Amino acid sequence: MVSINNLQFSYSKKATILDQLHLELDAGKIVGVLGKNGAGKSTFFKLMSGLLQPKKGTIDILGENPFSRYPSFLSKLFFVPEEFELPPIPIRTFITSTSKFYPRFDHRLVYELLEKFDLEDNVNLKGLSYGQKKKVIIAFALATKAELILMDEPTNGLDIPSKDIFRKIMAGHFEEDQLIMISTHQVKDIDTIIDHLIVLDNGGVIYNESIFDLTQKYDFLKVQQLKVSDTLYAEPILGGYKTIAPKQEQEDTQVDLELFFNALINDYKKFI
User: Fold this and answer.
1) How many other β-carbons are positioned within 10 Å of the β-carbon of residue 101?
2) How confident is the model over 201-246, as pLDDT tens digits?
3) Closest C-alpha among 204, 210, 267, 188 to residue 41
4) CATH T-level fold of 2-202
């Protein structure tokens, strides 16, 4: 599905954003892509969608070079950027005119998702708030059934009930031949829907594993007192600490993605 080798990109000679990045991903995953501000998450998605050209290295997605922007490639990809513009037309007109570019588009699904987001299809996009437009583009993206869907900060602009709806529709409308990648700073918005984690830092991928593997390797616990010898990482909370420790519990513990991300940024070599 996705094969990236020795990828390098910079906006200027002085600031390299991505450097010698390698990544292999198969279909059948919902992937969370995390990183600090400036780590290159948005740039990475633009490179994967062909909006930017690598300085060095190769990107192969579904057997094609994204930067060639062939219709055969674009019909299999949908990119939801953090900032976007929609035309001043009714939602139904946008769906009718744009869905033609996606051979697997599910018209029943898009209207089902709009209803869940409490949006009428006769409303003009021009009059919608940023959050409402975000709901439209998310619904449309999932309805394309594209083999690769990239979402950059999809929950920005959504209120708390809408974020809950987002999680439910993401979990319920996913095909095994699809790969969905979600970049976000709002880790708690996606921690229950992703099954794979990628972390970018220092220009490359510092972590790339399934959530299942995390549960088999580590315990995520809340304790009153720290046992330094058994603790890989800890953060203070009211009444004690949140900790990551090598797996000892018989039952799997709930992965704390935010805690794990902070641990990786602090010292990722402990976890590879």
Assistant:
1) 12
2) 989 999 999 999 999 999 999 999 887 778 999 999 998 999 999 9
3) 204
4) Rossmann fold (3.40.50)
